[in-house]
Amino acid sequence: MSDTPLKQQNTAAFYGQAVVSFAIALGATAFGIVRLDANAWVRGFMAIAVLYLVTSAFTLAKVIRDRQEAGQIVSRVDQARLEKLLAEHDPFEKL
Predict the structure, then answer these.
(1) How do residues 79-93 score in pLDDT, each as one tens digit?
(2) Which of 19, 42, 89, 90 could pair covalently with 38 via S-S, beta carbons 3.0-4.6 A apart?
(3) Phi/psi at 37 (5° precision)
């Protein structure tokens, strides 16, 4: 009666593609900042801005994931309560 949702797992290829893509993007941005025709202060500011953007993106992804997982837990608890009520209910019981 209970439909336990399967845990979604990414394939190794998808994980690898995400890591490689992130590394290429970060490397290309770092290369662009190093080759930028500007003084050291501007390049330093750009590097700090990129690092801040990366950490903010990781934090946002974690917050979204945590919120989604919390919603799934609440849904499972509600489903368990409903199944318990249905299991305990006897439609032929006299009122």
Answers:
(1) 777 787 777 777 777
(2) 42
(3) -85, 75
Distance of CA 95 to the CA centre of its chain: 50
DSSP 56-75: HHHHHHHHHHHHHHHHHHHH
CA–CA separation, 22 and 50 (whole Å): 13
d(CA 77, CA 2): 12
Distance (Å, rounded) from C-alpha 22 to C-alpha 33? 16
Task: Give the tens place of pLDDT for each residue, 21-49.
Answer: 999 999 999 999 999 999 999 999 999 99
- Angle in degrees, CA 64, 28, 63, rounded to 5: 10
Helix, strand, or coil (residue 1): coil
Has this prediction a pTM greater than 0.85?
Answer: no
Cβ count within 10 A of residue 72: 10
